[in-house]
Amino acid sequence: MKNTSYPIKGWVKNSFCDWEGKISTVIFLPGCNFRCPFCQNWDLVTKPESFASLDWETIKESFSTERNFIDGVVITIKIIKSSGIDYEFRTTVLPVFHSLSKIKDIGKYLNRAKRYILQGYRDIGVNSGFKCDKIFSKEEMEVFKKEVEEFFDECKIRYYK
Questions:
Q1: pTM (global) more than 0.70
Q2: CA atoms lying within 13 Å on the CB side of residue 99
């Protein structure tokens, strides 16, 4: 990658939980047009200007020094889907926002992506005003998985309960 003019607002150098079975580095970009109240990056979504922009050269240098340690990079949909590298997409599913038809719409949108994870909700770093009274059971998430697995090379559930 060449120098990026797109601001990088966050970076987790080594993550052991953002990609199952892999050690990844996570890059956070501003500009998400969703306002999911259960988002674990709520401040970045709503107040990106309050985050300092990080230097791409520093991150790129880390890629070079950590290349034998890091299995993948977590970043945005358009970039990753056309990159030719291994990746996964995730949806944190909650009954208040998601139904079987909405999950199927997501599957159609991401059609032919390599890997899709239906992820259970956990209340870490979410908007302080968001309360979650009900989460999907693992069995309910299995139903979602059966409905969308045709769209992906691999479809899994990541359940935290």
A1: no
A2: 2
| Cα distance between residue 98 and residue 95, in whole Å | 5
pLDDT digits (tens, 9 = 90+) for 48-107: 999 999 988 888 888 878 878 888 777 777 777 777 778 888 898 999 889 999 999 999
115, 89 in Cβ contact below 8 A? yes
The answer, yes or no, to whether residue 21 has pLDDT greater than 90, is: no
Q: What is the 3-state secondary structure (H, E, C) of 12-64?
A: EEEECCCCCCCCEEEEECCCCCCCCCCCCCHHHHHCHHHCCCECHHHHHHHHH
| Spatial contact of 121 and 133, defined as CB atoms under 8 Å apart | no
Torsions phi, psi for 38 (to 5 deg)? -95, 5
CB-CB contact of 32 with 78 (8 Å):
no
The number of angstroms, rounded, from the C-alpha of 21 to the middle of its chain's C-alpha atoms is 15
The residue type of 85 is I
